[in-house]
TrEMBL record:
EC number(s) on file: 1.2.1.9
Top EC class of this enzyme: oxidoreductase
Alphabetic keyword roster: Cytoplasm, NADP, Oxidoreductase
Record's GO cellular component terms: cytoplasm
Highest taxon in the source lineage: Eukaryota
Species this protein is from: Vitis rotundifolia
A molecular function (GO) term: lactaldehyde dehydrogenase (NAD+) activity
A Pfam family the protein falls into: Aldedh
Protein name: NADP-dependent glyceraldehyde-3-phosphate dehydrogenase
Length: 473
């Protein structure tokens, strides 16, 4: 059970505590924030509603701890990270239970997230020692007009206090992807977990606590965004903000001070399918890429752009696979589980209603039970439909039929989003050329988009193309 066993001290009555200065504490506000189980739509957990004054104290604690941590040898930092990783994997069952109840993640996927997170923490320790153990030596006469009279030695130093804000869909994995690199580099950390996923994050933080990190180095505050959200992101004690989520990131970028920002926001990941593609591979990739975890992934396929000549055959294959997906509770390891909140389900329904009014072809009957939305493929979607451009973050996928590759690239590049994309073709030369033309951060060839493996670079597009990677399984 969550909050029991080694986690008993993180619970105060029926409210989970927040973490700072090496201890679990109850907020002076006397208030809590409810966490609604997406499946039952009733309150599952409660977390502390921290005050602004408590945030101030947390920031002071983090800044003091960071100064000492920066002087800690690399090998010692790595040693503690490896210890935390081992504890995290040992405690995978209770943390996975939280993921099932807070974000309706299928049980097997919840366990995988925790184990994967432990592996990532260990990887950060290893890579950190390697990368941070190296400096760069420059000589002056490599630049015109200079003699070899000066030498420059550069090395990497920590930024200070990192504010880490992960999203609901991977509240453990995308938290440690920020925590691991921050800690090995000598920074301290203030974690503000998402409301849905906060209890799993608190359990994860306790694993770091049990590993024996110095007091004040890792902190986790919970509360209402209206009370402490802007206060955190605009706090003068923050030296860097790492945020993963949606439109909130735009507001953060406008309000934050002159600090480095690391952000990964929404996506409308395009899947371009050429006439020579292996349609069985494409269909499997679309179902996995578009519908796993009910489409609630930034890297999920969000729009299918398929050549007209093969569209009928592809849609038939995808529909056959969708019919085999199980729909129901995350405890039962169903393929499609409830979306995270009622407001999310309502937003998805709004996109579906718009598509229906504008006469998209419904390949399945639209069906909703509370927060549970059954998988739906929408064919013959046109650019005047909202679903063609907006991100549903749910198990609804639009198919747009195209008559040329250029048409598909144009639709991809006309999007306000630029996260990931994929191309399916047997012609590797075409694949690379199309990938280069797609204004998206990462392009996968003959494979569905994905963030992992976690040690691969995860490029995003802001707002014009940066780096791309081409992956061929």
């Amino acid at each position: 059970m969550a909050g029991s066993g080694v986690f008993a001290e993180i619970l105060d009555g029926d409210v989970f505590k927040y973490y700072t200065d090496g201890a679990w504490k109850t907020s002076s506000s006397g208030k809590s924030v409810p966490i609604i189980n997406p499946t039952t739509r009733s309150t599952q957990y409660k977390v502390q509603a921290c005050t602004q004054e408590e945030v101030n104290k947390v920031m002071e604690t983090a800044k003091t701890a960071q100064k000492l941590w920066a002087k800690t040898p690399l090998w010692k930092r790595a040693e503690l990270l490896h210890k935390a990783a081992a504890i995290l994997k040992e405690q995978k069952a209770p943390i996975a239970e939280c993921l099932v109840k807070e974000i309706a993640k299928p049980a097997k996927d919840a366990v995988t997230e925790v184990v994967r997170s432990g592996d990532l923490v260990s990887y950060c320790a290893e890579e950190g020692v390697r990368i941070l153990g190296e400096g760069k030596f420059l000589v002056s006469d490599s630049f015109p007009g200079n003699e070899r009279s000066k030498y420059c030695l550069t090395s990497k130093i920590p930024l200070g206090v990192i504010l880490a804000i992960p999203p609901f869909n991977y509240p453990v994995n995308l938290a440690v992807s920020k925590i691991g690199p921050a800690l090995i580099a000598g920074n301290s950390l203030v974690l503000k977990p998402p409301t849905q996923g906060a209890v799993a994050a608190l359990h994860m933080v306790h694993c770091f606590h049990l590993a024996g990190f110095p007091k004040g180095l890792i902190n986790c505050v919970t509360g209402r965004g209206s009370e402490i959200g802007d206060f955190l992101t605009m706090h003068p004690g923050v030296d860097c903000i790492s945020f993963t989520g949606g439109d909130t990131g735009i507001a953060i970028s406008k309000k934050a001070g002159m600090v480095p920002l690391q952000m990964e926001l929404g996506g409308k990941d395009a899947c371009i399918i050429l006439e020579d593609a292996d349609l069985d591979l494409v269909a499997s990739s679309i179902v996995k890429g578009g519908f796993s975890y009910s489409g609630q992934r930034c890297t999920a396929i969000k729009v299918v752009l398929v050549m007209e000549s093969v569209a009928d055959a592809l849609v038939e294959k995808v529909n056959a696979k969708l019919a085999k997906l199980t729909v129901g509770a995350p405890e039962d390891d169903c393929d499609i589980t409830p979306v995270v909140t009622e407001s999310s389900a309502n937003f998805i329904e709004g996109l579906v209603t718009d598509a229906k009014q504008k006469e998209a072809t419904f390949c399945q009957e639209y069906k909703r039970e509370g927060n549970l939305i059954y998988p739906l493929l929408l064919d013959n979607v046109r650019p005047d439909m909202r679903i063609a451009w907006e991100e549903p973050f749910g198990p609804v996928l639009p198919v747009i039929r195209i008559n040329s590759v250029e048409e598909g690239i144009h639709h991809c590049n006309a999007s306000n989003f630029g996260l990931q994309g994929c191309v399916f073709t047997r012609d590797i030369n075409k694949a690379i050329l199309i990938g280069d033309a797609m204004e998206t951060g990462t392009v996968q060839i003959n494979s569905a988009p994905a963030r992992g493996p976690d040690h691969f670079p995860f490029q995003v597009n802001f707002p014009t193309p940066l780096l791309k990677k081409k992956l061929m399984p």
